[in-house]
Amino acid sequence: xxxRREEAGPQGLASALVExxxxxxxxxxxxxxxxxxxxxxxxxxPGIADGTRQGALVSRVDDPGAWRxxxxxxxxxxxxxxxxxxxxxxxxxxPSSSSSMPRMVCAMLADLDVAGMRxxxxxxxxxxxxxxxxxxxxxxxxxxxxxxxxxxxxVARTAVGNLRRAGLxxxxxxxxxxxxxxxxxxxxxxxxTCSVREVPGEWxxxxxxxxxxxxxxGTGYGGEAIVRLxxxxxxxxxxxxxxxxxxxxxxxxxxRPPFAAYLKGRRWPADGERRxxxxxxADTGSWIAQFAIGLRVPGIFWRAERYEGGxxxxxLYADDTASWATADHVPRGGGEFEVVQSGARRLWDEVExxxxxxxxxxxxxxxxxxxxxxxxxxxxxxxxxxxxxxxxSWPVGRLGPHG
Length: 403
Hints:
By secondary structure, this protein is of the alpha+beta class. The chain has eleven helices and 19 strands.
């Protein structure tokens, strides 16, 4: 352990990222000149590569070797819980700010293709966080060409301090990231370091023709991936590239109804209708399966009620509280699974249909999907998903195409 800590440092991380194909040669100078440690607080909760779980607190004061090893590992680091309300050494309820996984930071910067920007073009970043990503951009492009928007004023203040300590001065603005920053527009590039459920219309308004937007985008059902959009004539379109697991833009967090709103005081199965299915609930749970289902099935979310021995009940809920469904998974229980459905919508039928559509198309990965976004008269952007061909798209949030 001690030898690994001694080896931890920016050069070792840079070598690993170059070998992985994430850190490209044109970003090497910025990566070396803007070390991650200048943007990481003394108290952190190291994560794992997929960004969905955090480990125990690591304190720079108590264990500087472990802190440095975490900083120069290819993992995300939680720096704030519960919008700053959490206190103490334990885990909070919900991570709300972090230093993103270096491999993802570098890959998204490569996707941004700042080398292809026009001379004097500006970059808008949504989600300043610790300031490291803004610092890398500012080193490469100059502080005057980078605008970063952060919703949390305390997080923004800390980021500005980190940037100044690194000798960098991009513009850091406290505000709602959905609205971008009109005073710095138009932008040649827009990058989000938090995930969104929909690409805000204001981003399209503030993007110049030919601009690139790179953002983590996820469905309401689950699953998330990085999308790279090219803006032309007020329409942005492009493919997804890789799986991701970022914290949601605060205004895009889901406000879930309480579970009690569905059964309305009745005992399960209440008025539910029973059927069986050959589709295992476990097959619908992968990140890409959730993504594919979420592209086609609107207004639905899920939770798992787990029991001993690996058995669980998958609960499906409609956002309007008018419909619900359950599907029971029993390991080694045979090829049939019991389903109960209630309400105007048959939620398991919809999930099963969406999964079947994905399966018939060869269970495509994220890279075969794409997104087209167009600003509407209401100010909200209309979003259409597609598989392989942008010409054969369907509106996100409505039942998608069959076949």
